[in-house]
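Person: Show me a sequence?

Helper:
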Amino acid sequence: MTAVRLPVELEQKLDSLSKQQHKSKTEIIKEALEIFFNTEKDDKDSYELGLNYFGKFGSGDGTLSVNYKRKIKEKINAKYNSH
């Protein structure tokens, strides 16, 4: 069993909702917690969201991050020397 102390404002809102929906406060709190837990379970950080895509469209060349300046110079030289 869990007991929770609510601020007066939340207690009043809960009481009002309980009367409107003809449900006990306990039922409303249980439903709200289920929604909250389901929402929290689905929240993923950016790393988890991109995990399936990392490296998916890679070039296969593992040296690009180290040799990118040389690669750019080669492309520029090839473009201007081809004329």
About this structure: The chain has a mean pLDDT of 87. Residues 9-43 form one domain.
